[in-house]
# Entry
Amino acid sequence: MELDILLITNGLTCLIISAVSIITGSKLVLKYFQNKERVLLLVGIAWILMYEGWWAPSISFILLLITNQGLSIELFFLVALSLGPVSITLWMIAFTDLMDKKKLQKPLIIIFVIQIIFFEAFFLYYLFTEPSMLLDIVGIIDAKYKLLIFLFYIEVICLLIITSTIFAWKSFKLDNHAIRLKAKFILIGFILFIIGASLDFFLELDILTMLLYRGLLVISSFTFYFGFFLPKSLKNLLLKEN
# Structure
């Protein structure tokens, strides 16, 4: 198959997004083994899985270059969406850790485990019986998602908006300037992710918008990481300005 510039841009940007999120998330996981702070393990894995939607186009692009065909619709779904509920569950556990609301963890875990079971059973049923209810493969390496996936995505976005806002609001009330600064980076990371992912998910993309929206997603990974481990020189500069 002859590759056009839009397809190449699509594949390469998905690869970059996936790689950056995996690298920054993995660095947070590695920091857990150094600092023994459970929240680092949770947010690291959650951040990696939040970008799962760009794994399937990345793999399809690589397969297209090697075999001249992408993932099947079944494999595309499994790679792109099967771990989504897990990422949200991990983030909610981390959120209760950060907010020191550990009493809420058990009921939240129960609620989200039930949701995971329901999600996987419901979507896997449709995937192997009527996959067109969930998504259609578009242009070899991409997919057009249907109403059921949209509804799940909207739930995820609402949870991220609510929890990130609560976390930032609580942090901004503290007298510790360093914590407030880190909270700003975490909030910016979530905002950029929500904007970039929503525009990428809901709109038809050309080369310019693809580079713009996915650029926001790449930046979001760095700003989120800085919310936990801000480079000392940048931290001192920003605190000095404040």
The mean pLDDT is 87. The radius of gyration is 19 Å.
